[in-house]
Amino acid sequence: MNKTRLAAIDIGTNSIRSIVIETSGNGKYRILDDEKVLARLGEGLHQTGAIAPAAWERAIEALTRQKKIIDGYKVSAIDAVATSAVRKASNGAELVRAIKKSTGLDIEVVSGEEEAELAALSAQHNFELDGVRHLIFDIGGGSLELISALGTHTEEMLSLELGAVFLTESFLKSDPVVGTEHQKLRKHIRKALKTAYTGERSGMQCLVGSGGTVTSIAAMVAAARKEKFDSLHGYELLRSEVVHLLAMLARKSDKERRAIPGLNPERSDIIVAGVTVVDELMDFFQVNHLKVNERGIREGLILRGLRKRNLLPEKKRRSWRDSALEFAHSCHIDEGHAEQVARLSLQLFKALAPRYGWGPKEMRLLDAAAIMHDVGYFISYSSHHKHSYHLIRHAELFGFTPRERELMANIARYHRKSVPKKKHEEFTRLSPDDQLLVARLGGILRLCDGLDRRRNAVVRELDCALSQDTLAVTLNGEEEMSVELYGAKAKSDLLQEACKLKLELHSGATEA
Q1: Rounded to whole angstroms, how far apart are CA atoms 226 and 243?
Q2: Minimal CA–CA distance to 375: which of 365, 388, 385?
Q3: How far is CA 238 from CA 141, 217, 270, in A?
Q4: Distance (Å, whole) CA 311 – CA 317
Q5: pLDDT class for 126, splitting at 50, 70, 90?
């Protein structure tokens, strides 16, 4: 299969980012290189109206290095854009010419609306937004891009001068931040939003945010929660967490902020302004949930480039289950066994869900974990349950948050061998509530894996009767099921322990 390599460069007000990808033309791609430099191109731009000589040199140096890296990958095309700082600067066009002369790069200076379109392309590629009224936003150093939409239908698209660098230089002169300065900043943001946004504000279900400010918020909250994820893409935040984080940041000096776990020290001086914008956005639209898109405009560039070169097929509706199945297929799982275990798991789930208050979110965790529970075979049969944990934890799974990936990885890990123990670091770092959820859902998966011991889907249906302290399960099917009864009994330990239930197993076929 022919593979194509492309690169994208995003020259922002605060940072310059480059990315190199490889695609087979099926709409999917893998990242080969991802480089970021804090060039601070917009430093002092508000005061002088021009890009400063030092910032100019930092940009040329960063782009020269990034171009050499990209050339090493022998890409077929490079899409490079410059955003707010170059767009506004009196010497922006001159810088574009200087970059061309030094590096050979052709830079496209995009409008604020084009920036918004790129952010929307990325968000819609990464999140389940069909039928959901949402707001996509990207906070850069110089501007804030906003897209309100219902599903894939855009309602309103805006670009506002509410970037983290611009607002810091305009309003926050003191260290630590003085209350009066911060209030003036808040009022300015509110006024800008009220003046520019004319659409319906009510009924907005979630915000999808990208840019350094948003990923920094996620990293600080994750550190405070003592959560460790390889990626914060898809991370979910509550308004209350943003409010509390902002209050803490605003009280501290720049030196103190530099020591905050999760915050890049190079961003410490502009983080208060950036988080204030997020706080005001959530208040303005009365939205409680924020989803983190780590990719943003640079991925939008890649997607636009794939589309332009006919390497992006017509968009099909994506689903979390398709993503789980696709990943499982890539690991060459026994699909018949996976689907049988998933089907039986959901039957047990429905019997227990009312007692524990489980809903659609818990159901999809179990369903996806059941589909993927044997992916560890891809590495080795020995300890394949542990390999499944690591593969699922690091998988690119559409529609799941980092926390959900961690939960599914643990649920799948306990489908065989040991039950959860204090010495299992992956399990003990979960919150107590999540540990209990993993044990209960993992117990269901473990039992149902035993119910397909011969991997021939002998068990057709489960009749479940739940009393105060007993779960009676009757196995229905057309064949003799002694092996399935044995397999289920051998794997009933975790479910009985986690749910504090006695399990009674019967064979409908045998009794018939």
Answers
A1: 19
A2: 388
A3: 23, 11, 22
A4: 17
A5: confident
The one-letter code for the residue type at 37 is V
Residue 197 per-residue DSSP state: -
Which residue pairs from 143-148 have beta carbons closer than 8 angstroms and sit at least 24 positions apart in sequence?
143/13, 143/83, 143/84, 143/112, 143/115, 144/277, 145/112, 145/115, 145/116, 145/119, 146/116, 146/197, 147/116, 147/117, 147/119, 147/120, 147/123, 148/197, 148/199, 148/204
The CA R_g of the chain, rounded to the nearest whole Å, is 26
Q: How far is CA 228 from CA 222, 391, 405, in A?
A: 7, 16, 12
Tokens standing for residue 419: 């039950």
H-only helix segments in 44-178? 45-48, 53-72, 84-88, 92-103, 112-126, 164-171
pLDDT for position 510: 43
Neighbouring C-beta atoms of residue 51, cutoff 10 Å? 25
Average pLDDT over residues 97-125: 91
For residue 330, the one-letter residue type is: S
- Residue for token pair 């290095």: 65
414-434: burial string, b at 16+ Cβ within 10 Å, e else: bbbeebbeeebebbeebeeee
Question: pLDDT tier at 314 (50, 70, 90 boundaries)?
Answer: low
For residue 104, give every residue at least 6 positions away whose Cβ sits within 8 Å of its Cβ, in sequence order, or none.
67
**Dmax (CA) of the chain:** 88
Q: Which two tokens stand for residue 263?
A: 């915050």
- φ and ψ at residue 427, rounded to 5 degrees: -85, -45
284 Cβ contact list (under 8 Å, min separation 6) = 190, 193, 194, 197, 201
C-alpha triplet 269, 229, 216: angle, nearest 5° = 15
CA distances (Å), origin 59, targets 51, 357, 484:
10, 54, 65
- The tokens for 47 are 């005061």
Cis geometry, peptide bond prior to residue 53 (ω within 30 degrees of 0): no
